[in-house]
Structures are given as structure tokens and as C-alpha cells.
Amino acid sequence: MESTPRYISLAEMKRLGVRLEATALHNAARAAWSDIRSGRAHGMKSVLSFHEADLWNQPEFEAYRDSLRGERLGWKLSALSSVGARYAAVKVVGANAINRRLGQPRSTSTILLLDNFTLRPLCVMDGTDISAARTATYASMALELFFPKADQLSVFLFGAGPIAEQIIRVLDHFGAGIISKVYVRSRSGTSAHQLVERQRQSLGIRLEAVEDNRRLRECRFVITASNASTPVFESAEIYPNAVVLHLGGDETPAGHIQNVLRSGLALCDDISMVSRRNSQSLALYLSHKGSTLEQLGPVLGVINLKDYCDAGGISECPILITCVGLPMLDLYVAAHVYETWFSQGSDRAPSVQPSSTN
Hints:
CATH class of the largest domain: Alpha Beta
Number of strands: 16
Structural class: alpha/beta
Helix content: 25-40%
Mean pLDDT: 91
């Protein structure tokens, strides 16, 4: 008799009291990066994108077309596979910006967690919140790496969706004594104000929703987590030696990328994955020139994050960190959730009905 893996929905996660706490998530991400560097964790990402015209040709969706101008539709089906020291995982993500017009999240994730040796499934869980939380660990990593001794640090955050919400929680937790203020800007403006109002009551960090980029030049740390279809700032608007954490699509202007490649530091969570996805500004900048990030990036000095561990020797210069979202981070964060709340060793684990094997 073996247990049949049970699907854990968001509702059941809430019932079980699942908490995506900043310190635990950061520690899970650090363990993932350690195993990536040592070769104990590997992963790959595949993306199937669809033609927008096929959506707009459907009468029930055509009315939403104008309201999505300036925003990436991001209509895609992604599969992220990874294996680590103890577990393996497959995350399936379905995304389409039109979902928000239908009262649903833009993207929905499902994670299948497996034993890494037998590759038998252990748990199936809704990974939507886990995905946003794992993406936010890039912000805590950047704080730890580039601002360990900073104070009075101003942060500019583009975006007001689930990832931005998780990022603000991370900045509030790890930015105590470091961050003076976080400016939040969204494409419509309304969502930024709503996000700030929701978070302001429960967090200690100072937040301000803004309508333009006038405060951008004051900020040494800039995070792009929007769904914009074009760059969200001009090169002249940004602090010259800002650290830009790029988590979205085509959000960084070509002029700023040129400046970073000429006189700064360009990092990717994985050069190969960013290049093959070819949807983010750095990869697009090189593909528009007839090359690829994978081919030309290392020649231009672009470095994988796993090969760059110490910012101590860096003088003031512009830094661009482009992150496509590593499957290994999903794996280690999902493993933390499983071990804490769902495994048979946890007193908070849900009951599982046994079934006979074939």
C-alpha cells in the first residue's frame, strides 16, 4: 500500500496555516544557490508561447484588447523541471494577462514535488503564491549582496502585482535599518495606490505610490516587476550607478544596457535560460543586433550569478541583474513548504488516503 499524493489547493494551504515567511524563504533560496554552485541542483525551463491574434479573434475576448495596450499579454505555457539534493520538481505555469480582466490571477502555477532518487511524486500543490514568493528572494539576495552596509537606501519598485507585494514584504523584513523608503509605480497608478494602502497598515517600511519617475534618480536600488511591454524608464531618469533588478519583460531601455555593458556589471541568474527565453531587455538587446545573449554575453562580460558571489571589491558602477526565474528556486521553496506543513513527519500534514499500487 502506498499513499496517493494529494493536491493541496490555496484554500487548504490557508486552512493549514501555511506561511511564506521571509527568513525561511531566503534560507531556502540560499540553500538552492549553494547547491547550484556545487553542482547538486540542476534545472531547465521550456516555454510554449501563443499568437495574440488567436485570442483577439475570439469574440468574447476582443473587447478587452484596448485595455491591455502597453501591457504584455504573456500568453504562454511554461514547464520548469529541476532536481536537487533531496527532491525533484516540475512546475507548470499557465499565464495570460487577460485573466486579470476575468477576475483571476495573471498566472497560475502547479508544482509536483518528487523524491529525487525514485522520482515518485510526494505532493502536488498550488504553486501560485510560492512562485511569487520565490521571485521575491531575488530582492533579498540583491540586498544582501550589494547593500550589506547601506543606510538611507531608497528603492523604486515598478509593478504592483503579486510579485511586487511579496517583494515589499521581503524589503520590509530585510531592509530594517537599511531602506528609508520604497516608491511604487504601476502602469495604471491605481494598483500602486491600492498596494501601498494594503501594505502600509501591517508593515513598518515607508511606502509611497508615485505617478511618474521623478523620484527614480534618488534610488540606488531599482526593481522592475511589471508586465509592461516597453521600457518603464528612460536612461537619463535613473541614478547613474543604480543596481537594477530586472524581473519582468522588456523593461530596461537599450541606452541603460549599453551603459552597463560599457562601464558596469551585467549579471543573469542563468545566461542560457535568459537567452533562450529571449523576452527580457538584455536578451532582446542582443537579439535585435543579430546575436544572442548566450553567444555574445560572456564576450561582453555578462556573468552568471552562481559565478559571482562577492560584491566587496566593486567600485561605484551601474549594475543590471536579469532574472528569468530558476526552477531550482521553485524546488527548494516548495520543499520547505512540504517539509514544514505537508510531509508525514509534520504534525500539520493533511491526511492522505491510501491506495493500492498496480
